[in-house]
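ASSEMBLY PREDICTION REQUEST
Request ID: AP-0331
Submitted by: J.K., bench scientist
Number of chains: two
Total residues: 481
Priority: normal
Notes: Please return the full assembly, not individual chains.
Input sequences:
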Amino acid sequence: MATTQYDDIYRQVVELLQEYAPKPGPIQEETELINDLGFDSLRVMEMLHDVEDAFDITYPLNSLSDLRTVKGFAEQIQHIIETS
Amino acid sequence: MGILDKLQTVADTRKALFPPGVDPLNIVIDEIYSATEASIGGHRVLLAGTNNYLGLTFDQHCIKAAQLSLELEGTGTTGSRMANGTFAGHRDLEKELAGFYGCSNAIVFSTGFVANLGVISTLAGPGDIIVLDADSHASIYDACKMSGAEMIRFRHNNLEDLEKKLKRLGSKTEKTLIIVEGIYSMLGDCAPLAEIAALKKKYGAWLLVDEAHSVGVMGDHGRGMAEAAGVEEDVDFIVGTFSKSLGAIGGYCVSNHPELDLVRYICRSYVFTASPSPSTIASVREALRAIQSKPELRTRLWDNAALLYHGLKELGFELGPDLSPIVAIRAPSREKTLFAWKALLDKGIYVNLVFPPAAPAGMSLLRCSISAAHTPEQINFLLQAFAEIKAMMAEQE
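STATUS: Completed
Returned structure:
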C-alpha cells in the first residue's frame, strides 16, 4: 500500500461499494451500508474478498458487527493497515 | 417495532419464491420404504437427496442392534453426558471411534452440529485466531462466533489466499486454528487437504477437518479425506457426524491430543444437552463396523456417483467441479431451479432445492446425493428424468 491516508482509502471504498451495492445511490461518509445501500451480510461477505485484495489486508469477520457507515468502514480499513 | 416484525421479511420472501401450496423447504415424507424410496404427497418417489451415502438406515444389523438396545436400555438417557447420560455404549462407541481413526481420544456428541459448535468454541477462545474456508458449514461459522476468537476467512479451496493469510499472521500462527471440510456439502467439491496440511505444518498452525460428508465415503478404509490425502497425522482434530454415512444422528471429535478429553468438562454443547439415545448409539456402532467390514459399499457408492455425474455432464448440465456422491446441478435462476425441482417431484424424484445463502456464491442448486443403496436402474431413471427436465427448461426459454 503506497499510502495509508484516509482520503485514498475512502475513495477506494466508495468505488467498491458502488460496484457491490444492491441499491445504487449517492455515497457519502455517513451513508449506511445496510439501510441506505441495501447490503445484507451475504453481499458484504462477497465484497470483502475484493476489499482485502484492494488494500492487501486481512479483514477479520468480527469487525463486521461494528460496521455501519462508509466512514466507519474506511476507518476500520485504515486501522487494519496501520496495525498490520 | 415488535420482536416478531422482522419475521415479516421471511413471509415476504417465501411468498415471492414459492407459489401457493408449494413449499419445498417443508417437505413431509409420509412413509419411508427403504434407503432410496418413500412416499411424498401420496406419491411413491425415488430419494436422491438424503445424504444416506452407504444406505445403512435400513441395514438389518443396525436395526436389530437398535431394537435390542431399546428393549434393554429404554428410549432415552434423559440426561447430559456429564451427569446420568453416559451409558456403557457411549463410552464403547468412543473407544471404537478412536480405534477406527487410530487416535487416542474421541468424544461423542448429540448431533454433528453441536459437535462443531462445542469443539471449535472450546478449543479456540479470545486471543486465538481461526482461519476458515469461506464455504464452511453454518455450524462452523456459529462456533467461530461463539469462540470469541478472531475470525479470518479465506477464499474457498484457495491455497494462495490461505497462505497469504497465514503469512500475514506471523508468529500468531501458533495460536491459529485452520478449519476446512473434507467434502463440501453443497457442491460436493473436495478440499485440497494434502496442500492445506503442508501449509499448516509450514506455518506452525493447528488443523481441524470436518469430515461430515467424507467419513465412510473417502479413503481406502472409509476414514475420510484425511486418509485419502495421506495426512491423518497432520490433522489435529477431526469432527464428524453419524447422520450421513452412519445412518443415524449424533456427532464426534477424534484427536491424538490428550487434552481433547478435557473438552468434556467445559464444552457447553456437551454438558448442557441430553446425550444420544442408547438405541442410536447401538445402531451407530453397527454402522461403524459396516464401514470397516464392507468396503464394497464404498465401491458401489462411487460407481453410482460416477454414473450420475458423467451422465448429467453428457446431458449438458453445469455441475460441481469434483466427482463425489454429492452431485449439484447449477440452474440459471431461482425460478428455473424451482420449476425443475417441482417437475422432478412430479416425475417421482426427490432432490434438494438449495437457494442462497445455503448455496455458495449466490447459486441456485438442485442437489442430488447418491447412495450405495441406489440401483443402476434407479440412477438411469434419474438421468432419464433430468433429460426430460432439460428439454422442458429449454422449451421455456
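REVIEWER COMMENTS: Chain A has one domain: 6-83.
SIGN-OFF: pending second reviewer
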